[in-house]
Amino acid sequence: MKLNGARNQCPTCREYFNSNGAFEKHRTGSHGVNRRCRSIEEMLEKGMALRKDGFWVAEPMKADLIKTLESK
Question: What are the structural domain ranges in the chain?
């Protein structure tokens, strides 16, 4: 996987994220107390989505926006 810009990989769970926001959303708990990575099931419950390219996003793109982008 190619990491550039805000794309990153969690050093703990090794999942890939498309943005810093998605990375932060996959973490839960308080720093220094009980901070951890969410499970795949927890990320899906939070509305996150795994894209075809293997990167997690904070939320899936809306269908109408996808159609607009594909028509360009």
Answer: 8-70
